[in-house]
Structure formats: C-alpha cells, structure tokens
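Bench log. Compound arrived from synthesis this morning; before running ITC I wanted a structural hypothesis for how ribulose-5-phosphate sits in the protein. Inputs:
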Amino acid sequence: MMSDVDLKKKAVGEKAVEYIQDGMTIGLGSGSTVYWMMKKLGALVSTGLNVRGVPSSLRTEKWAKEFGIPLVYFSEVSRLDVSIDGADEVDRNFNLVKGGGGSLLREKLVNDAADKRIIVVDDSKRVQQLGAFPVPVEVVQFGWENTAKKLVSIGCEPALRFVDGERFVSNNGNYILDCQFSNISDPFTLHEQIKRTLGVVETGLFLNMTETIIVGEEEGMTILKKCAPVESVKY
Ligand SMILES: O=C(CO)[C@H](O)[C@H](O)COP(=O)(O)O
C-alpha cells in the first residue's frame, strides 16, 4: 500500500502533466515525485501525444525510455517549453533547495532553459526559511577536503555524501557535500559565497527559478503561482 506521502507525490506529479501540450519540449526533472509525472506522460504519449523530453539525470533518462517518452539531446534544443521537477524545500518566496537525489547541476541547467518552470512537492517540503534540509553542493573530487574546509569557514558543517556505504558520485563525476547551515536568512548572498569557493561546481539553492509550485496535501493540493491568486484543488 502507498504511504500518504507517496499518494501526495503521485497526485501532484500527475497534475503537472496538465501543463503539457502537444508539440512541447519538456525538461524532465528528477526524483520520486517526477516519477509519477513521467509515468502519466508516458501513458499519454502511448495514446498519441507528441512531445519530447530532456532528462536531468541518468535515472530520469532510464524512466523516460521505460515509459516510452521520446528524448532529445539537450545540445539539440535552445529552449524548453516547460520543466517539471521536484524539490527538497520550498519557501514562500518560491526559492528552493534541490539536489537530495544528487542531480542538482543537470536539474539547474535544464530548469534554467525552460520558459515555464513547475515544481511538484508534498506539503512536508514547505518551509518558512530554507536550511533545515542541508544544502547539497556539488564539488570536484580533486581536493574536496580543502573545498569542504573553505565551506566550513563560511558557516556550515559539510558532510561528504555516501550512498550504500560508498562515496556518492554525481552524473557529472563530482562529489556532493551536504552543507548544514544554522540559519539561511539570505539565500542569494549565501549562494554567491558558496559559488565563489574554489572547487565548487554548483549549489542546490534554486533561487528565482520557478513560477509555479504544486503542493500535495491531505485532501487535495494547492497551486502557488508567483503574482497570481493561490488555487486550491480539493478531493
Ligand atoms: O532535487 C532532486 C534530485 O536531485 C529532487 O527533485 C528532490 O530531491 C525531490 O525528490 P523527491 O521527489 O524524491 O522527494
């Protein structure tokens, strides 16, 4: 049986497919919420919907192939019509922490290329202030220990990510440092500070990178849109 959280993820993932129209090129995000979007999209493709996707991770690429979603190389498209992605935290200013699955760099590149960017989350991801979830920071492997020390000096506790007892290596061949800050009052300045650190490739702070957030709740969902009234969908 599916957990309550999984039911919420499924509901918002499937809802996001309503934003996709025939002929669109779609940025396919990563994670378990995006999985449901892709499964539904695959079903629509099998009934004739003509779309193509750019995957933001190898796992997403695998799912796209499994669900029959046609893919196109990122290098072959200049813009995407829409991107649909998950997140680890969303604040009320539409800023996000992403990278819990380790795909933050490709996700950022894909989302940045989209004209419309939709985020799908369950309500446990909504926060007053970013930072309870450690900020994933992608760093080059060479000299990562020194990069970590530099990050300590800007106020965090970085932890090298391990998965199944092994050092996690991103799809780009880099390590991830999960950086716990005690308080992120200004995510924009923090992002700039981290980016200036030698050895850092990208941060999981996605700032001003979405206009629509679909939040799955116990009895429905809330659709948050920048500069538009909140929409509530009840079951
Ligand atoms: O940023 C991500 C992967 O790098 C995911 O979108 C994020 O971790 C949310 O995942 P899920 O939908 O499984 O909760």
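What the model suggests: The CA atoms of residues 31 and 86 lie 6 Å apart. Residues 135-204 form a domain with the Alpha-Beta Plaits fold (CATH 3.30.70.260).
ITC booked for Thursday regardless.
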